[in-house]
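This section describes the prediction task in plain terms. A model, or a person checking by hand, is given the sequence of a single protein chain and must write out its three-dimensional structure as a string of tokens. No templates, partner chains or ligands are provided. The sample shown here is typical of the held-out split.
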Amino acid sequence: MPIRASLSFFSTIRVGGDFEDLRNNLWIMPFTGFLIGSIIAVLSYPFRHFGIGFLAVVVYVAVEGINHIDGLADFFDSFFSPEGKKIKALKDLQIGSGGVIAVTVYVIALSNFFQMIENFFPALILSQTLAKQGMLQLILSSEPLWEGLAAEFIRGAKRRDYVSYAFSIPLALLLSLKYFEAILSLIVYFFTVCVFGYYVKRKYGGINGDMIGALNCLIFASVLGVWCLR
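The expected answer:
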């Protein structure tokens, strides 16, 4: 089943499934985000409720794993590298100062967001749903930099995968009936995807797995930040 494969791949929850099931059914990614967001919200809420935001982030990492955060670190090592050395930095297995700064800011931001958010459950669920939708959008609209994870996903991508928007957008619109932040979340989502996609295509000409993971983190944090505005 693709949902089992997707959940096993994008989180630490191992429920079986085959990678080919995921690669041939990428439309399932926002549904996976919905499930991951729900699990993170349930498990981290007690820590958030008692004002321990950092422990809530630990729960988030325990559920989603470190692959996306590792992608964030590798991408920002490349981002802060001078022209002509960005590809080399992207391939470097060691984390540099740019990556350390990015991950530090990310963890601090999430720690504060987890404590500040009033409508915790819809915020976590929507942010994870849109984060996975953004990863899929990047895959659907990009070429691979080289052979690797991104290339595997891109080869499996199909036009039918755009049907995923029939879940993520209605979810946001449904939540917007009660929470105005849901509409702002959609705006922030599209802005982040467009700017990030434009940048990586202009600077690199394609994407790799690190960029996909980095975008997941950027959307997750950005959308959570929207829910802290009031």
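For orientation: The two ends are 40 Å apart (CA to CA).
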